[in-house]
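PT: before anyone asks, these are the final sequences, not the draft ones from last week. 848 residues across everything. Please model them as a single complex and drop the result in this thread when it's through.
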Amino acid sequence: MSSRSTAPVLELVDVRKTFGSVVALANGSLTVHPGSIHALVGENGAGKSTLVKIVAGLYRCDAGDFRFRDAPVDFGSTAESKDAGIAVIYQEPTLFPDLSVTENIFMGRQLLGSGRRIDKAAMHDEASAIFTRLGVKLDPRRIARGLSIADQQIIEIAKAISLDAHLLVMDEPTAALSGVEVDRLFAVARSLRDEGRGIVFISHRFDEVFSLCDTITVMRDGDYIATATTAETSVDAIVQQMVGREVSDLFPKTTAPIGDVVLEVKGLQSAGVFHDVSFQIRAGEIVGLAGLVGAGRSEIARAVFGVDRYDAGSVTLAGRSIPGGNPRAAIRAGMAFIPEDRRQQGLVTEASIARNIASVIRDQLTRAGILTSRAENVAAGPWAGRLEVKTNALSMSAATMSGGNQQKVVIAKWLATKPRLLIIDEPTRGIDVGTKAEVHRLLSDLAGQGMAIVMISSELPEVLGMADRVLVVSEGRITGEFSRDEATPEAIMHAATAQAEEASA
Amino acid sequence: MSDTLVHPSEQSATKRLLNDILRSREIAIALVLVAVIAAATAKNPSFLFSANGWRDLWLTPSILVLVAIGQAVVIITRNVDLSVGSILGMSAYLTGTLFVDNPGLPIVVVMVAGAALGLLLGVINGALVAFGRVPALVITLGTMYIYRGIVLTWAGSNRINASDMPREFLNLGTQSLLTIPVLTIIALLALIAVGYYLSTARGGREMYAIGSDPDAADLYGLRVKRRIIAAFALCGALSGLAGVLYAARYGTVSSSAGSGWELQAVGAAVIGGVAIFGGSGTVWGAAIGAMLLLTINRALPILGVPDFWQRAVVGALIIGAIVLDRWLSTRQERKLLEARDEE
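LR: through. Structure below.
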């Protein structure tokens, strides 16, 4: 901590970045000193990634001060940022699979021998030296294809070392690593810190943040909230700062009578994705599936619906066992699944609204194998009307509609199958605030009519506002279950960031 | 087996080199070429052992080799250039026109002019692809017709005849040096230069990187646009040079010179192991691929294969090369993943 007195290596003050009318980063501030590991924490969408991308030179900030090594900078490309001495390790490393490990490390700034020819031997030697120092067994001559995520991250770190970077930014580097690999990464990070480099570490795992970092900066909704040294703060204080906002009464949730068990999932397991997942959903109930992005929520939903296969466990819908890996059987049994990426997976955007709505019940509409637009329109009419899809005609193309109306068409499409259970993944992502409330009212109405609803959402206010019950998923396991009264932002955040080891212990 | 993939450094340098060569696609395709030549020679010894046979073996593919080298460089960057045939045609016609207008012009000047014309047309291709953000397939399909249209307008129904060009220039098309035709030597020099550039210069390695993963290339801060323009420029220049040699070799140039060459060049590169999705392959492979493509065309009639099957064999060769590529890369990936589980 003696480095406190030295000038900061990176200084961001009131940095702002907008995309059209969306403010990705309202007021980002971050000061990193050399010889320090600085944690950047915040919920999904707090603006951390935007901040990292500005530092990396991928985005240009609209306003604010950006100083690096005591000089104002404004990077127009990743090359400029790299030349200045900034190395960024992304959550999912990007390598050239066809090239050798060494080439991946040195690409763009290869060591040159006489006549500006690439000096391969010198590069291999330096790569070997770096790997020895990192204590990893990786052959610099092998091609990058087939490397594990951990090894790919080692290459990214080797890149940063060979670059002699002054600042190393690690964006959730541990998300895909095992315990041993995390330890190895941390040892490397500490040794880089001791050499006087500045490190920014982004992670959702508080135990890692507190064991590795000396300073923590919290962000929320694109704003800088607070900075404290690890010694001065606590997990509770950080969580408070991360979520610290009121759950607005944006959510027109009406309580519905809770009925019988509709869906029962027992011991669902898929190697490397999720483990021992069991839960029940009752009629008239909205159950929020909360957790961090990548925790395995969507994967569980896809497995329950039968899109993905699972290794063990059972799914029962209204007393009937649902076979795995067969979405048609799930639909017949009364299950509906609205995926997160509706443009790609839920909607044929080039087709008409009527055709989209009628698509899942097409078999029932055909006469002698022939499907007419008239039959589609007749079948789609009542559903579209009920959802107040604001379009002039059912024959309009779905591509021309707003995100909110597209979402309603997808919901209408599945309601046409008269499901008993609706699984909806991120129901309001990419929808403006007004339409959000409409989608929420719709879900609430459906529950009131006795439908069981599983709602996957990364937006904490939405989960708290809508759900009768909240299940929290962390690293493929259910780490918490809260009733509507018990569910507080703090409780959910704690469960969502719990390590799998703790949960099973 | 997987040891050579995962821990190549544990072997001695010579063994590594030997391994690389023995396992390369180039050597496999060269063996096929040797087999084809051997079969044709067994049937008719003059295919290889007569002075004409020996000369044709080298001379026939030499111009296509030049175009295939350029095409390979473009494909390595995950693009494709369908306008090479039109560029070749325009340059060939330019060559003839230059000699008609200035009979005493030195041959070197004409060669430079042809290459410069190709370079210009290639830069146009590259700039459109790099800045237009439209797939190269579409862009160069467009410029293929545009460039051909320019030649058609320019040439009309005229054609350049052998009598329009100086004798020394036409001799270039048939002369030999130590029994190796001069055109082949020119192609070989270009091959060595480009191959050396691709394997030892930053620009060359960056072309492989861009083809291997364009998004990663952006994140690495590579100058992607510049490299793509350079690849198309090189391809254009080589096609332009090929156009000059075309005029020297065939003596007559009409407005349709070089039609269909684009597909032969792509076929040669693919047969030679240049992955159509970019990132791997060498110009050596493309050159051997070009040689195989044209040698098979000459060998099959000798072996008594009917006309229909001659084309089918070429098609099968291309499809086979692509299937082999997929199979080899999935097998390699599986082996690497298996090796990872063992550790």
